[in-house]
Amino acid sequence: MNMTEVTCFERLSTELILEIFNYFSSNDLIYSFHYLNKRFNDILFHHDHLINNFEIPTNNLNFSNDIFQLIGPKIQYLTLTTNDLNIPWNFLLNLKSLTISSPIPLNCDHFNSILNREQFRNLESFKIKSKICSEEIYHSDDHIVEGTAFTPIFYPFNKFKTFQYLSTVSPFQTVDDISGMDISPHLQKLSLKLWEFETIYFIIQYCPNLKDLDLIVTIIHSVRGNEELDLSTIHLKRFSLTMNDTNRSSQMTRACYHYLAKFIKHFSETLISLSLNFCGEHIVSDSPFMLNGTQLQDKLLQYMKELKNFNFYMSCQLRSRKNLIYLLSTFKNSFWLDHNWIVATHENYIYTLPFHFSHFYGFTHFDQIISTDPNIFQINSRLWYKIKTIEVSKSFQINPDLIKQLRRKIPNLITIIFNQVESIDQNNIRDDVTLSSVNTIHFNGASLNYIQPWITYVLPNLKHLFCHEKLLPKADTELAVLLIKKLETLHVAMFDYKIIEPNEFYLFNVKDITITIFAHFKPDEDVLQRILKTFTNFNILTVHFKCNIHYNNPKSWGNIKQLIEKLDMNEINKNYQIKYFFNSIQFSRNTHVFLKRKLSEIDLV
User: Fold this and answer.
1) Domain, as residue range, for 520
2) Could you tell me which PROSITE patterns the record lists for this protein (predicted)?
């Protein structure tokens, strides 16, 4: 083949190539077309929007560092998927947005080191989706480390308009954990995961120009004194609250709801959008005013002068159909009708329509949903468009008609969660009726064999599986063959004393594996060696350890270095790059997929 021959793609006009390039990420374009020839280099470097949004991959970090020298000044939006913060920041002269999304916790000391960089101070958006830990402080004291780490973010010289910290743990656990904060005049949008709701009273005083507040909270306590603070000078426009007590270990009292209502009423003159998600909280039917439309109006909503959008979602125990009918009747008065706020319910859930949230719990069938306005189901075809995940009820019964309804009514559905599902009759499945948008399932039932018809017929694009190792089928089964063909990502939980043996693991095509190891007190010292013997064909392997710590010995295990010391690092480094911290480790296979030429060989002018 003549290597100088011009391909069909190269014959396309620059305008058409630009149109095509707009469908690709900056990473795809750089990896695929940079160094290819002068024309493609000119297109990439003369149209900044094509390469201004870059993601640092988990592996191939050296290549990424080389890229920084070339396109660093053009990068405006940067995403880090690794906990290694040692990147060439000096090349990022025009960075506007930074997102850190690493499955491995961040070292608090390393995190603090970037806070004083000029590039950091000039950011408009900073989002953290990773946990922050310290080598000295473990377990219950994490929030102290995180509170200390986050104090500089609220310094006045930072230019953040958006700040988000929604990791798997809360950054602030009590007000006492934060000190030394200062006014943050530029901040307009704030998203935080808190342990206690009362902490927001302390933080919000330092955000005078805040417009958008999004909170995920575990506990709401009624605290005297906070209610007397005057927050009316803060012209909040949007407020979203999600309760995070998914274990339902506590119940909110009526006083807690009144405490929350008083906070919201501070913004009665300016709030235009209010969203309340209490599906993590266990509410009974004779509990507070949130389950009574008339009381909700009297205690809160009638005071909100500018409110246009109101969405709520909660779990409850209605106990009887009589209670259900009465409940819905309280949302049918003129106040609710005038605002066109429609309420619906199914099983033990109640919510507004159109449905505003991404996760839909307890799904059985659309026919089981009752609304204050039955006509809404025929009038509005987009009621469920925001749903990305459904968690099916134990009584869920699949049939071709329901699959068609799911496909039509929830077109953006990505994930299905199966809890305690019963075995599915294959006669209720047709191979020509599928859910092509779904690529992920979480399975917490008895055996994956129960949903084999789903995997065989309904989910042709299944790629990601979350389950416990004991639920995986045996290697010689039809279902195992299906999983080998379909899966790209596997998230699996197992006990340290029952690691899958090499001869038992057959998902060799899965390139991205995340393992959560549960152990008593601390893991076996050879657990990583055993894992690497079983899982041999991955590109990325992430391992998290969760230990049951004895109450009088809270620091019996908290550092993964003890396990790494047992590995043959000379041999490991030949094949993998390793990132680790606290109780997590990630192995990234060394790849050489990019054949780079020397810059001197290419004319970039």
Assistant:
1) 512-605
2) FBOX
Q: b/e map of 132-165 (b: 16 or more CB within 10 Å)?
A: bbbeebbeebbbbbbbbbbbbbbbeebbbbbbbb
Query: Band of the pLDDT at 283, cuts 50, 70, 90?
Result: low
The residues pairing with 128 across neighbouring beta strands, listed in sequence order, are 100, 165
> Can you read off the two tokens belonging to residue 289?
């005013």
Q: Which two tokens stand for residue 575?
A: 């094949």
DSSP structural state of residue 566: T
* pLDDT tens profile 383-434: 999 999 999 887 777 788 889 999 999 999 999 998 876 666 677 677 778 9
Domain-embedded: residue 585: yes
Q: What is the pLDDT of residue 156?
A: 84
Query: Rounded to an integer, what is the distance from CA 19 to the centroid of its chain?
Result: 31
User: pLDDT per residue over 420-463, tens digit each?
Assistant: 766 666 776 777 789 999 999 999 876 788 888 888 889 999 99
Whether cis (ω within 30° of 0) applies to the bond prior to 152 is no
Beta bridge partners of 351: 313, 344
Spatial distance between the Cα atoms of 214 and 250, rounded to a whole number of angstroms: 22
Boundary (domain end) residue, out of 358, 374, 390:
358
Residue labelled with tokens 């000029």 = 118
Calpha distance 162→324 (Å, rounded): 41
Rounded to 5°, the CA angle 350-354-358 comes to 75
